[in-house]
Predict the structure.
Amino acid sequence: MPIPEDVVRARAVRLFTYLKELTELRSDVKRSCDEYDQVVWWTEIPREKECYCAAWHIGREAAYDDWIRVERPRRKRPPSPPASLAPWLSERELSDSSLESPPLKETIVEEVRETGSGSGTPPETVARRLEDWPMI
């Protein structure tokens, strides 16, 4: 004997009500902005070419479907350091844009050839310390 349609509908409604209430138990409902860890107001969004906020275009057609859109800025490569400074810098730290300026190495190892020596003379390896080179 088939189950009446109103019974099936009532069971489905009870099932979905149960599932909805179960998910509400797992999530913390915030009732005020004061309860959030961090709040960004629309007026605080910088008016840069990488940023978009729907509130800026109220009454006009929106450029995007999003309310807020922040695109990743294109970063410029850092300038090449002078040849005398390059050995004292780490390539990884030189490209780290979070640093104000890259730190200098305390010591470097260089190969030095004596001027006027023949091609058969092997270069000498010299360790240089930053404190001995104040102009760096």
